[in-house]
Specification:
about 800 residues, alpha+beta, 6 domains, 3-stranded antiparallel β-sheet, 22 helices, 10 strands, signal, transmembrane helix
Length: about 800
């Protein structure tokens, strides 16, 4: 299996190596023509900025400049890669020398010319990208100035007569414009042949179908599929919320689109009405989206499917406000489109914006009054409860919302109508976007953590097929959820900036494009593609190390004459070397050369020398233990006062199992720098030593035979080396014996010694032999003039001497 895997890997490497050769056969792109077209496009954009532009024109020019900037940056990156390949080839060819092959000389000359051309093209591409960025900044400054004038331009206050007098003066002409605008549509309808009105009727029928039966059927089918096929309650709940948003947005939008398309096919729409109706279609879609998002968040009629932590009372009372908010959001877009299409006077537009701003303020105030009443009712119900929760955060949010409403009202009263409407719109947009992002984040977390979970089908396939641990699968699901939620949050911030001129999304996409091209860090280009490639390479490397270790531990090491400790040493060293090579391979694929890795390791060695001395010492000591093997797995050793069996040796510490089944973790440096008693290093045998004394009148030969018989009757005692019993000394009328025997292991010595002592006590008592310990002498020192105490009798039979 390993051979097959290595052959496949070799084939892939050969295929990858052949890609540059194949690429060389493809004609190189004409960078000069590409840069010429980019320069011409920038010239046209620069010339257009000299004329009077609308907001849509600025957006188009900005998009064109961004496209030129992106293309020039890509071209510069490609040219940099070509330059690196040419430099590498020139380095291989080396400097010119006399008598060299003409083909090598011609190739060097051609490469030198290409290097000069590519260098000039690279500089030009970078210069064009800078010019494009300058144009983009200029367009953004113009948009910012226009937005600033729109927000902070002051007009007559609605509380002053000047405001109403301006409306009255412009009213007749505005009514005339409205009449002409409506008359154009009426004339178009009258001129349309009724025989061709069937597309309009068909569009109306499709709209009714989409709003009624199709919408209800989609909701029922989706809920049934979720109940029957979704993997878990969390996923079902999130999918139901997203499904409600999808159906609630598409059904009204498609119905309006069908109705408008049918009317256009029937010739019932005047040309002056087309732009306005397109904007109305956008207004309907946004209003439907707002209502669907807030409805999916509140889930008034389906509390069991609710994701947000809100009560049924809150969902019931605030659902009507969501309809009003959605209607206001659609009305703002629709009325702006109508004012633009009709060409109403500035006074009427300001009056319209004032009404919309006042409606937003009243909506905010009404929702806050409702929230205040609910809090008062909740406080009354919780009065007297010791564990009543404190709603400090909710109170702060309520105070902030009141301040927003107050600022909008003061701005409206002071004549800053645009700013007042903007504050109301931002409050509504923040609420809708926040609810949508909350649901998407919850759904992302539910799906990621449910799909990549050890108990799921995919998790079981990963654990069985790739040998991954269940915890690894769970961790990947949580990590994937975190990454996706961060990306969603970034997109949400870009979308939140839409009211500030509509450039938030394009700015975010531009930044993402720059990030995708890579960031220069210390001469190394770091890009998402390079990071992903390095991660894949690291995963392949670790998989190869895992397969090699499985073959090494399962096939090769058992075929050797090494014991368990030797196999463990070889396995540990091979594993760490393989992991180090996989990491180096991944860094190399990231673009970090071996020389940079060596520089990094040399820099790290300084920090290791100062801050990680103990860890480094233990690591080196572990390598010494694995290489010299003064201590092996299974040895019985004594470290200080602790004695036990060596269970595991790693590069940092050694685990010792004590007699009470606890584990002692000893740093490897302690085993190298201090004294350690290894009872099984030189020989696996264990020795029993028994010391005792008998009276001088006892038969020494009989005592010796009794000891040898006791050794012979103990099964644990070995015949080779043979047991022995020696007379060690004769002291104070007693004979001291020192007896030895050997067992298979030091671990068996304690029990065997106990059995032998028990038999000796029994036999000596039966033979009438007094058995004592080795005699000891006690000397009493007396001072001159002190009485001499009586001499005590030694329990072992001797007499103390003063």
């Amino acid at each position: 299996m390993i051979g097959t895997l290595l052959r496949c890997l070799l084939s892939l490497l050969l295929a990858a190596a052949s890609v540059p050769a194949l690429a060389q056969t493809v004609a190189a792109p004409d960078y000069g023509s590409m840069l010429d077209r980019a320069a011409d496009e920038l010239g046209r954009v620069d010339g257009a900025l000299d004329t009077r532009l609308e907001r849509s024109d600025r957006d188009e020019l900005r998009a064109r400049a961004q496209a030129v900037r992106a293309s020039t940056l890509d071209t510069a990156q490609q040219l940099t890669g070509d330059m690196a390949r040419i430099e590498a080839r020139l380095a291989q060819l080396g400097p010119a020398s006399s008598g060299e092959d003409p083909a090598i000389r011609d190739e060097r000359a051609a490469l030198t010319r290409q290097r000069t051309t590519i260098d000039s093209a690279t500089k030009r591409a970078k210069l064009l990208s800078v010019e494009a960025q300058q144009l983009i900044d200029e367009i953004q400054e113009g948009q910012a100035a226009e937005l600033n004038q729109k927000l902070f331009g002051r007009g007559a206050s609605p509380l002053t007569p000047a405001f109403w007098s301006a409306i009255l003066r412009s009213m007749p002409r505005d009514l005339h414009r409205i009449e002409r605008f409506v008359a154009a549509e009426v004339a178009t309808i009258r001129a349309a042949p009724w025989a061709q009105a069937w597309p309009a009727l068909l569009g109306f029928a499709i709209a009714i179908l989409l709003l009624g039966p199709a919408r209800l059927a989609a909701a029922r089918v989706g809920q049934r599929l979720l109940i029957e096929g979704a993997p878990g309650r969390r996923v079902r709940r999130s999918a139901n919320a997203l499904g409600r948003i999808l159906v609630g947005t598409l059904a009204p939008l498609l119905a309006a689109a069908a109705l408008l398309t049918g009317a256009r096919w029937a010739g019932l729409v005047a040309s002056r009405w087309d732009p306005m109706l397109d904007q109305w279609l956008v207004a309907i879609g946004f209003a439907a989206f707002s209502s669907a998002v807030l409805g999916a968040t509140l889930m008034r009629r389906s509390p069991s499917w609710r994701i947000a932590p809100v009560s049924d009372a809150v969902a019931t009372r605030f659902r009507p406000y969501s309809f009003v908010l959605a209607g206001l959001a659609g009305c703002v877009i629709a009325l702006d489109a109508a004012d633009t299409a009709i060409g109403t006077s500035p006074a009427i537009r300001i009056a319209t914006h004032s009404l919309l701003a006042l409606a937003h303020i009243l909506l905010i105030a009404g929702s806050l009054f409702t929230l205040g009443r609910m809090r008062a009712e909740a406080n009354a119900a919780e009065e007297g409860a010791a564990d009543a929760p404190a709603h400090t955060g909710l109170a702060a949010m309520q105070l902030f919302a009141w301040s927003i409403a107050g600022v909008a009202l003061l701005a409206l009263a002071a004549g800053y109508v645009g700013f007042s409407l903007f504050v109301g719109q931002m409050a509504a947009w923040t609420l809708v976007l926040g609810a949508a992002v909350y649901l998407v984040l919850a759904a992302t977390d539910d799906v990621a953590t449910s799909v990549f979970e050890r108990g799921s089908r995919l998790g079981a396939a990963l654990t069985r097929g790739l040998g991954l641990r269940g915890g690894t699968v769970d961790q990947f699901g949580v990590l994937l959820s975190g990454v996706l939620r961060v990306l969603i949050a970034v997109v949400a911030v870009a979308l939140w900036l839409l009211p500030f001129g509509g450039s938030g999304v394009s700015d975010a996409l531009t930044r993402l494009g720059d990030l995708a091209r890579g960031v220069q860090i210390g001469g190394v280009t770091i890009s998402p593609g390079a990071i992903l490639r390095s991660i894949v390479v690291l995963a392949i490397g670790l998989a190869l190390v895992r397969g090699f270790m499985r073959w090494l531990e399962g096939r090769y090491l058992p075929a050797t004459d090494l014991d368990g400790s030797g196999r463990n040493s070889v396995s540990l060293v091979a594993r760490y070397v393989g992991i180090a090579l996989a990491v180096i391979w991944a860094l190399a694929s990231l673009g970090i050369g071996v020389e940079r890795i060596a520089l990094l390791l040399s820099a790290l060695s300084v920090g290791i020398g100062f801050g990680l001395q103990a860890i480094t010492q233990n690591f080196v000591s572990g390598l010494i233990l694995l290489a010299e093997r003064p201590i092996k797995i299974g040895d019985l050793i004594r470290v200080g006062t602790d004695e036990g069996d060596v269970k595991r040796i790693s590069v940092r510490s050694t685990e010792i199992t004590l007699a009470d089944h606890s584990t002692l973790i000893v740093p490897n440096s302690e085993l190298i720098t201090k004294s350690v008693l290894n009872k099984t290093l030189a020989s696996p045998l264990g020795r029993i030593q028994i010391q005792f004394s008998v009276p001088i009148n006892a038969d020494a030969a009989a005592v010796q035979q009794l000891v040898l018989d006791a050794f012979a009757r103990e099964e644990a005692v070995l015949d080779d080396p043979a047991p022995s019993a020696f007379i060690d000394a004769i002291v104070n009328d007693r004979i001291a014996f020192n007896c030895f025997a050997h067992v298979e292991s030091p671990r068996a010595a304690y029990r065997a010694r106990s059995n032998i002592l028990l038999e000796l006590l029994t036999r000596f008592r039966a033979e009438g032999i007094e058995m004592g310990t080795v005699p000891q002498r006690l000397e009493l020192v007396t001072m001159p003039g002190d009485p001499v105490p009586p001499l005590p009798v030694d329990p072992a039979g001797g007499t103390a001497r003063a």
